[in-house]
Specification:
Blueprint: E1 6-10, H1 16-28, E2 32-35, H2 44-56, E3 59-64, H3 66-69, H4 72-83, E4 87-92, H5 100-105, E5 112-113, H6 119-133, H7 145-155, H8 164-196, H9 205-228, H10 238-241, H11 243-266, H12 283-335, H13 341-372
Parallel strand pairs: 1-2, 1-3, 3-4, 4-5
Helix pairs in contact: 8-9, 8-11, 9-13, 11-12, 12-13
Length: 373
């Protein structure tokens, strides 16, 4: 006899992070979830336990991805679900070419495409389907009359409303994550600097400057990120934002080292080749001409070098921030697979601008502290 509370999820362990989020959301709303480690080979006792789980469930959720569709264990679980005539919910997590044999097996079942629209919207549709099966969902706010009316209007063509309130509330979280990551980044840079140079007497200026710069840059990046993801704001949490700490704290030092090396190697002026010809001048005239040239050329080349170096550094930092934004988008997509290309563009651009602002702010704060201490 089927357990009306039980929801069986069949998936590949490569998609485990998304599935754990989904199972947590279902359990928080009253469902009992059975998770199958579909790609982990087990003995016959384990496989019989899986079959009993499918037999006992009220609903069978199939998380579709290339890895899941290619797994023979997931294929067996689909077979169990069909044998015991279970209601199957195919959930598209990653774009997949479904073989014809499996496609025929899933005919007649309504697909939920999590790569289209927000996670929260698709979760509402899933909860509605489970409710119709009789799965008790006592804490599902998404099934309240007002939320269902809104979802009904969306299906009829009404645009999904931007969740501006939730979006603005999440911007400080991005700023905090950036600040922590940049404090770690500048601490690592401080250690590297101390290895090659004399230790600074104002070592506190480095992490504090990094924290302040990261906080300001994170605000900029957070504004761009939440503007791009305003329709997905409810689904964005600290688990997404904390990726900024790892990106800046771990990947940042390696990338910064490459940026500094490339910038320093780019421009090397050759002043001597343009020195004045003293063959027709007297000693005093030659000295005066050489002195005047040295002053003029030194200032000109120094300003040119400084200008070029600043432009190169800012460009390199922008590209570094864009790379960090791309990594952040990849992280967000693991839990929010419906992020579109244009949304990614704004997030990546915002992170590039945020990194540029962060560097300028961090260096300014460091210079101020070194003067003040």
């Amino acid at each position: 006899m089927a357990n009306k509370d039980l929801v069986f999820i069949s998936y590949s362990h490569r998609d485990e992070e998304f599935v754990l989020r989904l199972s947590t959301d279902l359990e928080n709303r009253g469902a009992q979830v059975w998770l199958d480690r579909g790609d982990i080979q087990g003995g016959e006792q384990w496989r019989r336990s899986i079959e009993r789980g499918v037999q006992a469930c009220a609903a069978f959720l199939l998380v579709i991805s290339p890895d899941a569709i290619g797994s023979k264990y997931v294929a067996e679980e689909i077979g169990y679900a069909l044998r015991y005539r279970k209601a199957i919910f195919p959930l598209v997590y990653r774009r997949t070419n479904i073989p014809e044999a499996i496609s025929r097996q899933l005919e007649g079942f309504q697909f939920l495409d999590f790569t289209q629209g927000g996670y929260a919207t698709n979760l509402t549709d899933l909860l509605l389907g489970l409710q119709r099966l009789g799965v008790p969902l006592h804490a599902a706010q998404e099934l309240s009359p007002s939320e269902l009316a809104e979802r009904r209007r969306q299906r009829l063509g009404a645009p999904v409303r931007a969740q501006w309130g939730a979006a603005f509330l999440r911007i400080p979280g991005w700023a905090l994550a950036w600040a922590i990551g940049w404090a770690l980044l500048f601490t690592v840079l401080l250690v590297i600097n101390a290895y090659f140079n004399e230790p600074s007497n104002t070592i506190i200026a480095w992490p504090v400057g990094g924290f302040a710069g990261g906080l300001l840059g994170g605000l900029v990046a957070g504004i761009f990120t939440m503007f791009a993801l305003r329709h997905n704001a409810v689904s964005i949490g600290w688990k997404h934002m904390s990726s900024a700490i790892r990106i800046w704290g771990l990947i940042g030092p390696i990338a910064c080292a490459g940026v500094i090396a490339a910038t320093l190697a780019f421009y090397e002026p050759n002043i001597a080749s343009q020195a004045p010809d003293c063959s027709t001048l007297g000693l005093g005239e030659c000295f005066a001409a050489g002195f005047a040239y040295a002053i003029g050329a030194g200032i000109a080349y120094g300003l040119a070098l400084a200008f070029v170096m600043i432009l190169l550094v800012l460009l390199a930092v922008f590209l570094l921030g864009a790379l960090a934004g791309w990594l952040a988008v990849r992280r967000i997509r693991r839990l929010e697979p419906g992020i579109l290309g244009r949304q990614s563009f704004w997030v990546i651009s915002g992170w590039g601008i945020g990194a540029t602002v962060a560097v300028i702010a961090a260096v300014t704060v460091m210079a101020f502290l070194e003067q003040a201490i």
